[in-house]
Write a structure and sequence with these properties.
Elements: H1 2-27, H2 32-40, H3 42-53, H4 59-82, H5 96-136, H6 139-150, H7 152-171, H8 175-197, H9 205-212, H10 227-261, H11 268-299, H12 301-320, H13 338-361, H14 371-403, H15 412-443, H16 453-465, H17 470-483, H18 488-492, H19 501-512, H20 520-528, H21 533-546, H22 565-578, H23 581-595, H24 600-611, H25 623-627, H26 632-645, H27 651-657, H28 664-673, H29 679-687, H30 693-706, H31 709-719, H32 725-736, H33 741-775, H34 784-808, H35 814-824, H36 829-842, H37 848-855, H38 860-866, H39 878-887, H40 894-907, H41 913-920, H42 925-938, H43 943-949, H44 956-968
Helix pairs in contact: 1-5, 1-7, 1-8, 1-10, 1-11, 2-14, 3-5, 4-5, 4-8, 7-11, 9-36, 10-13, 10-14, 10-15, 11-12, 11-13, 12-13, 12-15, 15-17, 16-17, 17-19, 19-21, 20-21, 21-22, 22-23, 22-24, 23-24, 24-26, 26-28, 27-28, 28-30, 29-30, 30-31, 30-32, 31-32, 32-33, 32-34, 33-34, 33-38, 33-39, ...
Length: about 1000
């Protein structure tokens, strides 16, 4: 892709320079407004052509056809330009004047069409590149690959710019058009290779054509944009329209200056443009690699946005005062004239900043917009603003040129100055609304992390300084603590004494995330004002945690029994943390009274105080009692204290807390607080098949909430070996991790090929299920148990498809995958076709065709045949197929395994001893019950000894079945009763 974009762009830059030279010689700069107006409709027209071609050609052919379409007219242009110095078509019998008129008209039309075609192929080239890249790379890969691909234009500027002058001297001006044709033809050849080598990355033609006729689904409908968001979008329109208009005005004035400067020189405009583009390319590469990101990080997004209009305004103001020369002196100008050099400098800086700083800043301006509509708004703003502004600019220039016929082009400088100032005003208005929308996004839980932290801090300071609703200020503090917690103290400390108690509490919480001694004076002043107990407790913690050598004796007054329990507990925990032995003894006594107090609040605050203390030797004896406290709040608080103080002997209590609904959330919070220390025991709990599925799920969720590298490694390593419900749970946890951390980690650890391998595993499993359904078809096995098994196998198929859709979300846009799944679940054939079309245009995995056939409404035999490359199907007898299924029992659901044994019992088929013994150890009681029922039929002589061993099975269903079987066998001894809360089982024994 880089090679295609670079090679094609080299041809484009050559062609653009040559065309500009010829156009200025033929039509002068006054003809440019016609080009601008004509190009306004080219973008939408060519986009329509691009979509229209896909009705008749597959996309992998369309991209090649478009690349050839871009190059083909260049050959005609080369032939048309050759008529300037020859007399074709045997026109010699006409008058000389007639021949000369024909030559001039044909060459002029060719030049005009060339300039217009430049605008067209720029649109086509960008469209073709972006669409092809989006097909070849998924949404996560494109973030890493597209910057490399897009740098092809910078490389092309350097190579083509410095080589153009040499080429003109070697082959002539007109023949460079032929070289451009060759370069673009090479680019088309590269695209042809890509389309052949990666056919799976492109959608299928037939489905594409059928699905275009469908109506859009309700899933894709969006609501209109209203309120503050609407005003922000209007300002975005103004921002990009002004940018495009100024870009065109500067280009118009620049080309006008070139026309005046080189009006009598053949090919010098093209040579100058080549050198200009070469120098510009070098500067762009250096700016993009070395300066852009650093400037944005240092001064902020909006300060960086003002740089471009500020430079334009400054240079325009300087050029307004530049001396103007009469037309008769234009021929005597040299390239050292101040006016010409000023215009060249203006064009150079505009191009340089436009494609570096402006391009880097533009995406950030869309970050406050909610994710659900961001891409749509971005496409509308960029897709509508630029074409409209181009057309309007061309019309305005044409009108003014007609009105000011004999005037110089210097009247453009005041216009550019005025528009640059308006652009700066639009940026200031955008800045005022930027953080407002960020706050609204944070309140909805839709905050993106890619925001301007410097601008955020400035806006928060301004909001806190002026009167505003308390909820608004609280939202600002929350936003600051999420986006830039390290600078929270710098912003909030000066305002603490002026805040309301609610804001003081929230501000101190934010400052305690990164406590800094520099803000001790402000917090101590707050302590002296005797704030409410919850605020005072946080302030005391901040002071005594940040002060280098605190006077712990000052905490003694807070240990009195008449002090609020929250403040008293905080003071006691601080004394335990930093006091001497005597002070620690005083604090221990105070906490002992709180932990054994009759009031619930006293015990709760005592437990919370334990969480902040380091010295608990004398207070550990109260923890077992507190774990069984009648108050739920106390039990939750002590679980948090265990995690905060890392009391390893009580870690089993945290794991047991996951088993009870009342303490589950508190136990998960405590385990997450342990961070990496909790991962080994959580993994052990999640792997324990004897534990309930809900408890195992909570263990995986706790690991996901920890979110460290070790936690991600544990989840991903188990993802590769887990199956069924376990794999589905891990996939869901990874997908729901914030900021796509889980998705990125999976791709980094497993790579794209690893995810594709998991999808292939699921498809292979589906192939085994289809083979079983074929061999256990109703016309071959007519039993009720067989019907139950077939239903269980179809349910497993649906589960596997669900996991496939979850795996696809690691590679492709989540919205597209969910939309496809939504439509495929419909009973309407049109909706199913729409879902398949979405997948056809999204997927590029090697097994894409097999997956689409599985999801389509084909027969089981057709689906099985489509999976032939992954699974080899050999027809088998029903009994052999059942034994084959039990060989795959680790992939089957518990109910499907039970159905296999029930069918074997009813059909009197034999199973292997290894299968039977293994399933007899199954953790689910109903599976063991099915195995016992089968053994009662298949091996009655082994039953007496086996039943004696199963009398203490933990499942009551199995115990009742054992008792019934013993009675049938004539045994009178009763079953040994199961002790309460016994965890002993047959598998453990």
């Amino acid at each position: 892709m880089f090679a295609f974009y670079a090679v094609t762009s080299i041809g484009l830059v050559w062609l653009e320079a040559i065309t500009t030279d010829l156009f200025l010689k033929t039509y002068t700069a006054e003809g440019l407004p016609w080009i601008y107006m004509a190009s306004a409709g080219i973008g939408s027209g060519l986009s329509f052509l691009y979509s229209y071609l896909q009705k008749f050609l597959p996309l992998r052919r369309v991209i090649v056809v478009i690349a050839l379409l871009m190059a083909a007219p260049l050959l005609c242009f080369w032939v048309g330009l050759s008529f300037e110095n020859s007399y074709p078509f045997q026109l010699a019998h006409f008058s000389i004047a007639g021949i000369e008129f024909w030559q001039a008209s044909l060459a002029g039309i060719t030049v005009f069409l060339m300039r217009l075609w430049i605008e067209a192929i720029n649109v086509l080239n960008d469209l073709n590149t972006s669409i092809t890249a989006n097909q070849l790379f998924n949404i996560r890969e494109i973030k890493r690959t597209y910057p490399l691909i897009s740098s092809g234009i910078l490389v092309a500027d350097v190579i083509s710019g410095f080589s153009l002058g040499v080429l003109i001297s070697w082959v002539g001006l007109n023949n460079v058009v032929l070289l451009s044709f060759v370069m673009m033809l090479i680019g088309a050849g590269i695209l042809l290779y890509l389309s052949q080598a990666y056919q799976q990355a492109f959608p299928d033609f037939l489905r594409k054509r059928a699905a275009i006729e469908e109506q859009p689904s309700d899933f894709s409908r969006t609501r209109p944009i209203q309120g503050p968001l609407r005003r922000y979008v209007v300002l975005l329109f103004a921002f990009f329209i002004l940018a495009q208009v100024l870009f065109l005005l500067i280009d118009f004035r620049f080309l006008g200056a070139l026309e005046q400067q080189f009006s009598s020189s053949e090919g010098q405009i093209a040579a100058f443009l080549g050198m200009f583009n070469g120098i510009l390319g070098v500067l762009e590469v250096a700016m993009q690699w070395l300066a852009s990101s650093r400037v944005i990080e240092r001064v902020g997004v909006f300060a960086a946005s003002v740089v471009l209009p500020g430079v334009i305004a400054l240079l325009s103001a300087l050029l307004i005062s530049s001396p103007a020369w009469p037309p008769q002196l234009v021929a005597d100008l040299t390239w050292t004239q101040p006016l010409f050099m000023g215009i060249v400098l203006l064009k150079l800086l505009d191009e340089l900043l436009h494609y570096t700083l402006f391009a880097s800043v533009s995406p950030v301006l869309f970050q406050p917009i909610p994710d659900s509509v961001r891409s749509r708004i971005q496409a509308i703003v960029r897709g509508v603003a630029e074409p409209i502004s181009t057309g309007v600019t061309g019309l305005a220039l044409l009108t003014l040129s007609l009105v000011l016929k004999d005037a110089q082009l210097d009247w453009l400088f005041p216009v550019m100055l005025l528009m640059a100032l308006v652009w700066i005003l639009a940026i200031l208005l955008l800045r005022a609304r930027y953080v407002n929308l960020l706050v609204m996004s944070a309140e909805r839980g839709q905050l993106s992390q890619d925001v301007d932290e410097l601008e955020l801090r400035r806006w928060v300071v301004e909001t806190l300084d002026k009167p505003a609703p308390e909820d608004r200020k609280e939202s600002c503090i929350d936003l600051l603590s999420k986006v830039d917690p390290k600078s929270a103290g710098e912003v909030l400390a000066p305002h603490l004494t002026n805040f309301s108690p609610k804001l003081q509490h929230r501000g101190l919480e934010a400052m305690l995330l990164y406590p800094n001694p520099a803000y001790l004076p402000q917090v101590k002043t707050l302590v002296e004002l005797s704030p409410p107990p919850d605020v005072l407790a946080l302030a005391l913690r901040f002071v005594w945690l940040t002060e280098a050598s605190p006077d712990i004796r000052q905490l003694r007054p807070y240990l009195r029994t008449d002090v609020d329990p929250e403040v008293r507990g905080t003071a006691a925990s601080l004394m335990l943390r930093r006091g001497n032995p005597t002070q620690k003894a005083e604090a221990t006594t105070a906490l002992r009274r709180m932990l054994t107090h009759k009031l619930e609040r006293e015990r709760v605050m005592g437990c919370r105080a334990l969480a902040d203390a380091n010295y608990l030797q004398a207070l550990r004896i109260y923890i077992p009692t507190l774990l069984q406290d009648k108050s739920l709040r106390v039990r939750r608080a002590i679980l948090e204290a265990i995690a905060a103080t890392h009391l390893e002997e009580f870690y089993p209590s945290l794991l047991r807390g996951l088993q009870y609904k009342s303490t589950r959330e508190a136990a998960m919070k405590a385990l997450v607080r342990l961070d990496n220390e909790a991962i080994p025991m959580l993994v052990k709990l999640a792997e324990d098949v004897q534990k309930p599925d809900a408890v195992r799920l909570r263990a995986w969720q706790a690991i996901g909430l920890i979110g460290s590298l070790e936690a991600l490694d544990a989840l991903i390593s188990h993802l590769m070996i887990a199956w069924g419900t376990n794999r589905r749970n891990i996939l869901r946890i990874l997908l729901e991790m914030p900021r796509d951390v889980g998705i990125e980690s999976v791709l980094d650890r497993m790579g794209r090929s690893g995810v594709e391998q998991l999808i292939d595993q699921e498809l292979m499993f589906i192939g085994q299920l289809y083979g079983a359904l074929m061999d256990l078809a109703p016309d071959r096995v007519r039993l009720r148990e067989a019907d139950l098994l077939r239903r269980a196998l179809k349910a497993l198929q649906m589960d596997a498809q669900e996991r496939i859709f979850m795996l696809m979300q690691f590679l492709y846009p989540i919205g597209a995958v969910k939309a496809a799944a939504f439509n495929l679940q419909s009973a309407s054939r049109s909706n199913v076709a729409r879902g398949l079309e979405i997948l056809d245009n999204t997927l590029d995995i090697p097994s894409k065709r097999a997956l689409l056939n599985v999801l389509d409404g084909n027969s089981d035999w057709e689906k099985l045949r489509s999976l032939s490359e992954l699974v080899e199907y050999n027809p088998a007898q029903p009994s052999d197929r059942l034994r084959r299924l039990l060989e795959l029992r680790h992939f089957l659901s518990d109910w499907a395994i039970a159905c296999c044994f029930h069918l074997a019992r009813q059909a009197r088929w034999t199973l292997t001893a290894e299968q039977t013994i293994s399933c007899l150890r199954h953790p689910k009681g109903f599976v063991r019950e099915a195995v016992l029922a089968y053994l009662w039929m298949a091996s009655p002589r082994a039953m007496p000894k086996l039943l004696q061993q199963l009398q203490r099975d933990p499942d009551r269903l199995v115990v009742d079945q054992v008792q019934t079987m013993l009675k049938k066998m004539g045994h009178t001894n009763s079953v040994v009763p199961l002790p309460p809360n016994s965890g002993e089982s047959y598998t453990n024994s």
